[in-house]
Amino acid sequence: MIATLANPLKFMAFSRWAAPALGVVAAILIGWGLALGLAAPPDYQQGETVRIMFVHVPAAWVSMLAYACLGAASFVSLVFRHALADAAARAVAPLGAMFTAMALITGSLWGRPMWGAWWVWGDARLVSVLVLFLLFVGYIALRASIEDEVKAARAAEILALIGLINLPVIKFSVNWWNTLHQGESIMRAGGSTLAPVYLLPLLLVGAGYSAAFGALWLARTRGEVWRRRGASLTLQAALS
Amino acid sequence: MTPHSTLFRRELSLAWARGGGPLLTVGFFASVCLMVPLSIGAAPGRLSAVAGGITWVGLALASLLSLDRLFERDFESGALDLVNLGPLPLETICAVKCAAQWLASCAPLALAAPVAAIGLGAKVETAGLIALTAAIGGVAFAFVGGAGAALALVSRRGGVLIALIVLPLLTPPVIFGGAAIANFAAGLPWTTGLILLTAYALAAVALTPFAMAGACRNALS
User: Fold this and answer.
1) What is the pLDDT of residues B102-153, one digit of tens each?
2) Which of A52, A119, A203, B134 is 20 to 30 Å from B13 at the Cα level?
C-alpha cells in the first residue's frame, strides 16, 4: 500500500477522498468520546476537572506520534530521496507543533485547579512535551530560514533525525531528573489505575485525535504537492 | 606531519583568534553569572543552592557563542571546499573542527566554571567535579553544537537559529551535569550523573560527525 501511495498521482487520488473521510471519522470519534466523558461521574479526588484529561492526554499522545511521523518521513526522504516524503515531512511539522502546544495549554489549565499552579516542574511529562515543542519550533525555523528548497529539505531531514535519536534520551533524562528533584505532587493518571468509565472516552478521543491528525496531515501534504506544482508551473511559464 | 594534525593546528589557531577566542567566551560566561545574583537577589542561602545549576546554564550559553563562525568562515572563503578535496573524509574534518572548538572554547570555560561557581557560593570541595563535568559536558556542547552550526550553514540567520535548534538537544547533558554537582554537594551518590554525561558526550562524538558531514555536503552542493 505504501509503495502504491509513494506514487504522487496515486497519492493525490487516494488522499482526495481519504482526507475528508478520516475527518468525518475523527469528528464522530471525538464527539462520541467527549459526550461519554462529559456524562462520566466526577472523580472523587479531582472533581469535575478530571474531564480536562480527555482533551489533554490525547493531544500529548498525538504530539509524540507526530514527531515519530516527522522522523519516519525524513528518513525515507533522506535515504530514498523521495519528493513526496519530503512534502509529508514539511506538512507534518506545524501540525505536530500545534498538537504539542495544545497539550501544553490544556496541561497548564489542568494544573491550575489540580496543583494550584499553572506550571509544575515536578511533572516530567509536561517538561518533556515542552522540549518536544521546542524541537518542532527549531525544525520549522530551520526550514523557513533556508531559501533553496532542496537544501532546506536536506538540512531539515538531518535535524529531524538528530531529534529522533535524541528524543528517547531527552525523555529518559527528564524522567530521571524528576526522580532526583521529587516534586510536591506528582499525578499518576493513566495505566491500569484508570477506571473504565474514564478509560473508554479517553481511548475514543485518542483514536479521534489520531484520525484528525491523519486527515490534517493528508490535507496539508496535498496542499504542499499543489504548492510545488504551482511553483514549477510558474517557473515553466517564466522560461517559455 | 599527518593531515590530521595539520588541520587540527589550523583549526585551533583559527578558533583561538576567532572573534577574540577564549577571552570572549569566558567574558560572556562571567557576564551571565554576574546577571544571576543581580536578578534573583544576593541572599547567601538562595545563591549557593543554585550555584552549580547557574554555572551549567552559563556554560551551555557561552559554548554557543562562537559556533556560528565554526563552519561559516571556511564555507564563505571556500576553505571548506578545499579541505573537502583533500585526503581526509569530511566526517573527520568536522570532528577535528569540533575538537579544536572544544580546546579553544570549552576547555577554558571548564577552568572558569569552578571559579564562577565558588563565587556564587558553591562549596570549595565541588570545584574539581565542576571542572570535570564542564570539560566532559563541553565535548557534548562542541559536537552537538557543531551539528547545529553545520545545519545552519545554508540559512541566512546563523546565530539565533543555531541556539534555537541546539539548546533543546542539550537538555540531557545539562540535566546530567547539574545533577552530578547537586548530588555531590548534598552528599548523595553522584557518579550516575557523571557516567550518563560521559555516555552522552561519547555518543555525540561518535554520531554527530556524520550529521555534520551530511549538512556540509548539502551546503557545498
Assistant:
1) 998 899 999 999 999 888 888 888 889 999 999 999 999 999 999 999 999 8
2) B134
Interface of B with A (CB under 8 A): 147, 151-152, 154-157, 161, 164-165, 167-169, 171-172, 175-176, 179, 182-183, 196, 200, 207-208, 211, 214-215, 218-219, 221
DSSP string, chain B: --HHHHHHHHHHHHHHHGGGHHHHHHHHHHHHHHHHHHHH---HHHHHHHHHHHHHHHHHHHHHTTGGGTTHHHHHHTHHHHHHHSSS-HHHHHHHHHHHHIIIIIHHHHHHHHHHHHHTT--GGGHHHHHHHHHHHHHHHHHHHHHHHHHGGGSS-HHHHHHHHHGGGGHHHHHHHHHHHHHHHTTS--HHHHHHHHHHHHHHHHHHHHHHHHHHHHHH-
Q: Looking at residue A183, what is its pLDDT?
A: 42
Instruction: Indicate the burial class of B79 (C-beta count within 10 angstroms; 0-12, 13-18, 19 or more).
Output: middle
| Contacting residues of B for A165, CB less than 8 Å apart | 207
Q: Which residue has the cell 562549596?
A: B123
Instruction: Tell the burial category of B85 from Cβ atoms under 10 Å away from its Cβ (0-12, 13-18, 19+).
Output: exposed
pLDDT digits (tens, 9 = 90+) for B163-186: 899 999 999 999 899 888 888 888
What is the rounded CA–CA span in Å between residue A159 and residue A134? 13
The C-alpha atoms of residue A107 and residue A59 are separated, in whole angstroms, by: 10
Strand partners for A43 = A47
- Please report residues of A whose CB lies closer than 8 A to that of B164: 134, 137-138, 141
Separation between Cα atoms, residue B14 and residue B96, nearest integer Å: 13
**Interface confidence (ipTM) of the complex:** 0.87
What's the start-to-end Cα distance of chain A, in Å? 38
